Amino acid sequence: MGRLLDSVDSVISRTGYTGEDGFELIVPATEAERVWTALLESGKPHAIVPCGLGARDTLRFEAAMPLYGHELSETTNPYAAGVGWAVKLDKGEFVGRDALRRFQSNPGQTRVGLRIDGKRAARQGSLVRLDGKDVGLVTSGTFAPTLGQSLAMALVDPSVSATGTRLAVEIRGREDAAKVVPLPFYKRTAGSAASP
To answer: In whole angstroms, what is the distance from residue 145 CA to residue 130 CA?
Structure first.
């Protein structure tokens, strides 16, 4: 594989968004099939297996990495999404700084993790409730294969964001019990996963 990449104009980066160690190979479209085939062939002794976008997104989700269009949007402020660390309010004047200062002290909602009882998966837009009252919306959800549990991330009222808070999530017309759990759901360590 190494010799092949010596002959192909390529970029190798560690810009992945999965929470796992890995590399991305960027090659010309005309070389993609040849590189793909060589990669699979050279990986056979290591039991390499191809996967698709769904598997990559499941890893992103288990690592609780916010994704634009889900946890991040034009209407979700960075403090609600849990990425306020990326905002540098003291780096001079910029459009929106005053609004961001207000959100810093009062984000309006909080991104939380939810462990859902049972195996049904909540999807983006599922309502989160407490005693029949709407308190938030699911931003991403799936059955997490690494942890063997149905999990979701949601933006909820801060009053129900404490770890251990019991809530309900509407999944296909039925409310399933859920509990607020810490994020990330999974963090790669010495080969073990911590279950929420």
So the answer is: 27
- From residue 66, give the alpha-carbon distance in Å to each of 130, 146, 153: 24, 18, 9
Q: Where are the domains of the chain?
A: 2-50, 64-181
Q: How many CA atoms lie within 13 A of 27 on its CB side?
A: 17
Alpha carbon 30 to its chain's center: 32
DSSP helix/strand/coil, 48: coil
Say if residues 144 and 58 touch (Cβ distance below 8 Å): yes
The CA-atom distances, in angstroms, between 166 and each of 148, 162, 178 are: 20, 9, 6
pLDDT tier, 163 (very low <50, low <70, confident <90, very high otherwise) = very high
Q: What CATH code is assigned to 64-181?
A: 2.40.30.110
- Mean pLDDT computed over 145-173: 97
Q: Give the pLDDT mean for 163-188.
A: 96
Alpha-carbon distance of 94 to 82, in angstroms, equals 21
Quick check: 44 and 57 in contact, CB under 8 A?
Answer: no
